[in-house]
Design brief:
The chain is α+β, with helices and mostly antiparallel strands. The strands form 2 sheets. A 6-stranded antiparallel β-sheet has the order 1-2-3-4-6-5. The protein has a 3-stranded antiparallel β-sheet with strand order 7-8-9. The protein has 2 domains: 106 residues, Phosphorylase Kinase, domain 1; 194 residues, Transferase(Phosphotransferase), domain 1, CATH 1.10.510. Helix content is 40%, strand content 15%.
Length: 384
């Protein structure tokens, strides 16, 4: 199996330049740098596409070697087939999937801007949440994109039943113009013909921190492919944006989970505090949270936003918003009640100011060796 480091240092063939990735029908792809590893074990790279005519442009390339597991390779190709059907301004475009020698490549749009994961880290560093207006605007945009994906049909008009299953801050970007883009369809479920069949136990989970209870807890298998699971995940994102808190990690829940560990003689909170939580631990938290924890997390928010989140974060899927369109409409009503003028430009400005305030603090942390980059796509020079 080829490691990411080995992949990034792949020796080019004699006819290739040092940074050449692959070519297809006269279009050449130039590797710029390795960014990270995806949920399927794929290398995610920033690259530049050089078409036969016209200007070169930055793209994101996912690459998976044939020596990787077959299911991972099939899922990467499936993601490209599925995402290439999605044509919506709020969804990152996928240009295609290419097989070159032993490696498969999926090429998608590069969104120059800020990841919500970065924005949340900046806000945490500055010890303040983002504005309710930003949270409402971003999540309304994502709800619209999800509704489009959830209702997508094939050429015969048959619903594909698409469920994203990995709605999380790392898969949401806000462009420099303030446009919100959803990506990360690698673990999506659909009825697309030829979809790789897997058991639920073997299916990738995505970012488990943002998974709905029915995806984490036993007995929820029949509900795993419901679109409302995506809406719950979006509710967790909205809550974190406007409060800085994650529902699965609020203080009252911490105490109850620690008590459960003690009762079950599985150790105490002190033994695993600060360590990354495993799926079993997250499932316990998703199973233990209740309305009181939601109310604790909602403290300080305006009443209209509280009403939305109370419904969105219900344990029972049937009690949540029925569709992304319903949720989008409610979020936009809340936003208009707070500001008629909040939109892309104001969102971009708020995130830019947040970044400008946080960068000096990150640099100070870097100087003493505690800095860890959150978003490797940031600060990209288009002439790099």
């Amino acid at each position: 199996m080829v490691s990411l480091k080995q992949f990034s240092r792949r020796r080019p063939a004699r006819h290739e330049s040092e940074h050449h990735l692959f070519s297809s029908e006269g279009t050449h792809f130039e590797r710029i740098r390795l960014v990270s590893e995806g949920p399927l074990g794929e290398a995610i790279l920033l690259a530049r596409r050089h078409p036969p005519q016209g200007r070169a442009e930055l793209v994101v390339v996912k690459a998976l070697d044939r020596r990787q597991p077959r299911k991972a390779r099939e899922r990467l190709a499936e993601e490209a087939r599925l995402a290439s059907r999605l044509s919506h301004p709020g969804i990152v475009r996928v240009f295609g999937h290419y097989q070159q020698g032993e490696t498969g490549y999926t090429v998608s749009e590069f969104v120059e801007g800020t990841s919500l994961a970065t924005a949340l880290c900046d806000a945490a560093l500055l010890a303040r949440p983002l504005s309710e207006e930003l949270g409402l605007y971003v999540c309304a945009e994502v709800a619209g994109a999800l509704h489009y994906a959830h209702t997508l049909a094939d050429e015969r008009g048959q619903p594909l039943g698409l469920v994203h299953r990995d709605v999380c801050p790392a898969n949401l970007r806000v462009s420099r113009e303030g446009r919100v883009k959803l990506s990360g369809f690698g673990v999506a479920w659909s009825r697309l013909p030829g979809r790789e069949e897997t058991t639920e136990e073997a299916a990738p989970l995505g970012d488990a921190d943002y998974a709905a209870p029915e995806r984490l807890c036993a007995g929820g298998a029949r509900l795993q492919h419901e679109a409302r699971a995506d809406l719950f995940s979006l509710g967790l994102v909205l809550l974190e944006l406007v409060t800085g808190q994650h529902l699965y990690y609020v203080e009252p829940l911490d105490r109850r989970v620690a008590h459960v560990h003690t009762v079950k003689k599985r150790g105490t909170w002190g033994e695993w505090e600060g360590e990354p939580l495993g799926l079993e631990e997250l499932a316990l938290r998703a199973d233990c949270y209740g309305p009181g924890d939601v109310e604790y997390a909602l403290h300080g928010l305006s009443e209209p936003v509280k009403v939305v989140l109370r419904k969105l974060l219900r344990r029972e899927p049937a009690e949540r918003h029925a569709t992304g369109a319903e949720l989008e409409a409610e979020l936009r009503r809340c936003l208009r009640a707070r500001s008629w003028w909040y939109g892309p430009w104001r969102a971009a400005r708020e995130l830019a100011r947040l970044r400008a305030e946080a960068v000096p603090l990150w640099r100070g942390a870097e100087a003493v060796g505690t800095f860890r980059s959150v978003d490797a796509f940031e600060n990209v020079d288009r002439d790099e």
